[in-house]
Amino acid sequence: MINFSGCNQPFSDLDKLTIPELETLCCEIREFLVKSVSKTGGHLASNLGVVELTVALHRVFDFPTDKIVWDVGHQSYVHKILSGRASQFDTLRQFGGLSGFPKTAESPYDCFNTGHSSTSVSAALGLARSRDLNKEHHQVIAVFGDGAMTGGMLFEALNDAGHSKTPLILILNDNAMSISKNVGAVPRYLRNLRAKPGYFKSKHVVETFLQKIPAIGTPTANLIRKGKRAIKRIVLPLTMFQELGFEYLGPIDGHSMEKLIFALERAKETKRPTVVHVHTKKGKGYLPAEYNPQVFHGVSGFDLEHLEDSAPKEDDYSAVAGNTLLSLAKEDKSLVAITAAMPGGTGLLKFAHTFRDRFFDVGIAEQHAVTLSAGMAAGGIKPVFAVYSSFLQRAYDQILHDICLQNLHAVFCVDRAGVVGADGETHHGLFDIAYLSAMPNMSILSPSSFRELEQMLRYAILEHDAPIAIRYPRGSDQIEVPDFVFGKAHCLQEGQNITIVSCGRMLKVAKAAAELLAEEGITAEMMSVPTLCPLDGEALLQSVKKTGKMAVLEDHSIDGGLGSMVASLLAEAKSEAGLLRLAYPKEPIVHGKVSELDARYGLDAEGVCRRIKEFLHE
Questions:
Q1: Fewest 10 Å CB contacts: which of 64, 397, 409, 456?
Q2: For the whole model, what pTM was predicted?
Q3: Is 394 a catalytic residue?
Q4: Quick one: pLDDT at residue 235?
Q5: At a CB cut-off of 8 Å and minimum separation 6, what does 471 contact?
């Protein structure tokens, strides 16, 4: 049994192991993964499904000389183990520890940072073209799931790569899942391919037979070559990948080490774009994850011995949003809900089961989801697109061009706004206010409690008649606030020395900071801004006229957020009031617990109190 906790060197001798020894290694890796992730949390099911595939890749290819790009990247844990990072797994996704995604700054084995789906083929093609231009000869591999094939960007890359003839190896990890079960025509096509497990073997037999046909003279050779192609098309109809210009190998059992190594060795010898279609089982080797791959996709720490005794999940903003939409759908039959492969994460499962004909899961296709919403709104329907903040930014042009310029009534439930914790820089939602507030006709709301979110959704769907976004955080942090009134700010506490302006989850931090200031004789006026756009400038100017100074606290990047809007407000009003902006810096924000990140960047109550005292002293 390997002591993985002591392994800080790459597994460089996999080529010396027999197939049975490699299979034993896979079992030991699975056991280590389950134990590690049960303590730290992380993406478990997806990594359990690619153990054999990753071991085979490290057996056949020479990393880090050869380059591998992991689509999304949450399935790269086994790659990290094999590349010398097993000893750090007790820090996985912890503040200051190992990232849950590939990071070039972490290891030379990670050649490209990833975090969002459907990007790997584009990145790998770029790396391959750079290799060719630099007269280098290493292999470039991209590993993507069937869920990524619901994203348009991947097809843009396939179109380019298949046409280019650039040597490139694409591994399609087909497990019939993204986070939830895959939807749409492409997954159905892949299911049909999986139903022909003998295709790869039959193709090899046919090719071997045809190669034995002799050729006499150039004209005869050309004629026979064309005849071979015709025979092969009749016996083995081409796959979509072959039609696009790829060599196609598969479908292959992704848990058979022998078959994987054979296919990868053959792909390595091919001097053209090649797709290796691998069929795997998400959660493989750990029965709870096999039976519930969606539940074990991303998990917090859990008790290995008492899974059934886990405490029921408390309500959070996602659940409240989903329940409220369900209730409103009973009142308004024109309301529909849209998700991009995230019905569970965005709280829409109950809606999906109750209103099957009014629920649309478009797969990992945020751009399509937004323009679909635009078309439905133009047709008199009220679409609500529930999406994580970091994923909505993938559809910037569609929001502007198709929704806002036409002033269509579409509602965006922007989940996971602000910092989200352990997933880190690719998943923090720190830019939505900046890009949404710049768009014409767009309104932006930010609730500080479940009740306020319910009121905002009711207003946005039943009363508003233009584009509107409601951004809310991950989790359940709340503070009691007055009833929501569109476009109005609220004074929660009067003070004389400074006005603190905040919204969303940071309103609770602002209150705690105000209490600390009060202990030192500094009275702060607290302003809640549930409507970020349009901003209630009159109320804010009236408050700062009394206090003379203002601090804006927000869970957003410092540029383009609420602080920037307040700065513009003060400048346009020719106010001489001092302004302190408290937000996340414009840099990649590390992973860690939300409380740890707030503290690191001076955005917890103590940090806010300290910075306000310094500001007042200046």
A1: 397
A2: 0.89
A3: yes
A4: 44
A5: 389, 414, 417, 418, 429, 432, 433, 444, 445, 446, 504
